[in-house]
Specification:
Elements: E1 23-26, E2 29-35, E3 42-52, E4 55-61, H1 68-80, E5 87-91, H2 97-100, H3 103-107, E6 117-120, H4 121-132, H5 139-148, H6 154-161, H7 166-170, E7 179-181, E8 186-189, E9 192-199, E10 206-211, E11 216-220, H8 242-250, E12 261-264, H9 273-293, H10 301-308, H11 315-334, E13 338-342, E14 348-352
Parallel strand pairs: 4-5, 5-6, 6-7, 11-12
Antiparallel strand pairs: 1-2, 2-3, 3-4, 8-9, 9-10, 10-11, 13-14
Length: 353
Amino acid sequence: MNPQEAELVYPFADALPDPGHKREIAPGIYWIRKPLPFALDHINLWLLRDRYDGRDGWTVIDCGIASETTRGLWSQVIANELEGLPIVRILCTHYHPDHLGNAAWLQRQPGERVPPLWMTLGEYSIGRVMHAGLEGTDGPQIVAHYTSNGLVDEAYLASMAQRTGYYARLVPDVPLTYHRIAAGEGIAIGDDTWRVIPGFGHSPEHAALYAEQANILISGDMLLPRISTNVSVHAMEPEADPVRQFMESIRRFEPLPKDALVLPSHGRPFRNLHRRVEQLIEHHDARLGEVLAHCASPRTAADIVPIMFRRPLDTHQLFFAFGEALAHLHALWYAGALRRERGADGILRFEAA
């Protein structure tokens, strides 16, 4: 949790929107909130009044996971909150299940036309790969990734070995076509033009959206007020450097006005985005210092997890914690502060250079 959260301003702190209803944030921009069955127990989704392809209606930003609960709440929103107008477009900031999970389901709702899915190429492509469960995304590859980085908990490794089809359970289908969006592009939605600001480190090609006229940033997962965005090294990209990518990405928000309203995917809408960028950079710098200090002797990623996360972790949380511990080791390794060696046991260890 962010220990400096008081430095942020929450203009909508009085109440959360009921999960089946929308709350107005600005003219034509509405906040809806859906539950998640994890420690991170909610996601914010956004409804924007729009006129697209000759029709008045709504653009949906992100969709929630494909659960019976979420779909039931979506049905309430569609029946009661859309003022009789259709969803004309679906835009997903990135491929993670809580963002893409219901895109295809929303396309199947009654209407004269199927609303197209808008995403970046990187996010749509990896979503299709993950949904297909291609070799390299499944349990055996994850177990090999963990064991090569020092994880020896047999019960956890056994649970990961069975982790097949996990993504497809939360995203049971992905639209077969999409409309590509790209960095710097201006997307006309309603009365505003939203500029695509790309982000890396959390996902392959995350799309945040900024509307200059409204001075609103839909930040997705790249800028969250209460927690730090997960930045992990995953089995499919074992040499990644996501901490550096993430820190470089959030600096792209620095030219935006200080008083811009930030609409994050988790937590409440807030202002003072410049300070939040600083807080996140300070946070990762401090974590990098902690990790470096503990690498006076050789350490594995598994050794670093309890250094960075000083609390019990369930299986879901350990998946992200392990990836983040390895990400901080990689950042120091690429910077030349650590050296990496593979031992005779096949395990990668990092030590101060």
